[in-house]
Every structure is written in structure tokens, then in C-alpha cells.
Design a protein that fits this description.
Layout (H helix, E strand, L loop, with lengths): L4 E7 L5 H14 L6 E5 L9 E6 L2 E6 L7 H11 L4 E7 L3 H7 L6 E5 L16 H23 L2
Length: 155
């Protein structure tokens, strides 16, 4: 049986946390039937956030790409918990309301804190990273997290 788990992709702003979480969604969604995808909140525009539930081998996997400074983030996480998702993947910054919300889910969820790879120029704020390298780092992170989630669902 899969243990209830939240994977929180946390860190500084503007380093691709949301984009990386959306890439995990895209990877997992491409590997299952459309009937096994339930979109709770559709992206508003090409860079918009998503909240969805994927059914992978009868395991509910919730994904929320919304980060801090969004009033809806706590509500989206509550929706995933109330839907009885076994695994939840969420983006969040390294402090603030979203971190507190995620920490409040333990128990019953175990929490894994993860950071997509960081490479940024010292002294920049918001952080500035070389785009090509950052994209490759985020793609690798997304592939590894998607594989991890699938390994839990098919264990």
C-alpha cells in the first residue's frame, strides 16, 4: 500500500518550481488514459497554473503548480486532500503560508521537500539563471519526480 505523501518543490522565486511541477503533470498525464485525468483548475493562459488529479494504477495523484502569494493555494491543497489523493505534488517557496500549510498535513501525510536544481547569478533578485541550463535542470528534475511517483503507484 502506498503511504500518503506530499512532495513539495520549494525554493526561491523565479527558478522554475511551478514550471517543473507542470512538467511532471504533463509527463504523467501523457502516460495514462484521458479518462484518468480530472482537472480541478485549468490554466489561465499558456503560463497559468494547474490543479489536477491523475489516477495511476488506482492511486490518486494530486498536482498543484500554484505557488505562494496566491490566496487559492491553500484551497487547492485542501481540494486534493479532500479528494483523498494518496500522493500530492505542490510548488511552494521556501517560507510562508504554503510551507505552513504543507507542514500541517503531517500527519497523515509524510512530507518530502525537494528543490529543482538551482543555478543563479549571485546578487540578483529576483534570481537570474542561465535559461538553457535552468530548462535542462528543470526537465531532469521533472523526469525524476515523475518516475518516482510512478514507482510508488506501481509498487
Amino acid at each position: 500500500m502506498v503511504q500518503k505523501t506530499v512532495i513539495a518543490n520549494y525554493g526561491y522565486p523565479n527558478l522554475g518550481k511551478t514550471e517543473s511541477v507542470k512538467r511532471v503533470y504533463e509527463k504523467l498525464a501523457s502516460r495514462i488514459k484521458p479518462a484518468d485525468i480530472y482537472i480541478l483548475h485549468t490554466p489561465k493562459g499558456p503560463d497559468g497554473d494547474i490543479c489536477a488529479i491523475l489516477t495511476i494504477n488506482n492511486i490518486l495523484v494530486g498536482i498543484s503548480s500554484l505557488g505562494d502569494y496566491c490566496q487559492e493555494h491553500s484551497d487547492w491543497l485542501d481540494e486534493l486532500v479532500n479528494a483523498e489523493c494518496t500522493i500530492i505534488l505542490a510548488a511552494c517557496q521556501n517560507g510562508g503560508k504554503t510551507v505552513k500549510k504543507i507542514e500541517s498535513l503531517n500527519p497523515p501525510y509524510r512530507i518530502y521537500w525537494s528543490c529543482n536544481a538551482h543555478l543563479y547569478e549571485a546578487g540578483t533578485f529576483p534570481r537570474v539563471a542561465p535559461k538553457g541550463v535552468l530548462d535542462r535542470f528543470n526537465e531532469n528534475w521533472a523526469e525524476e519526480i515523475a518516475n518516482l511517483i510512478e514507482s510508488w503507484c506501481y509498487a
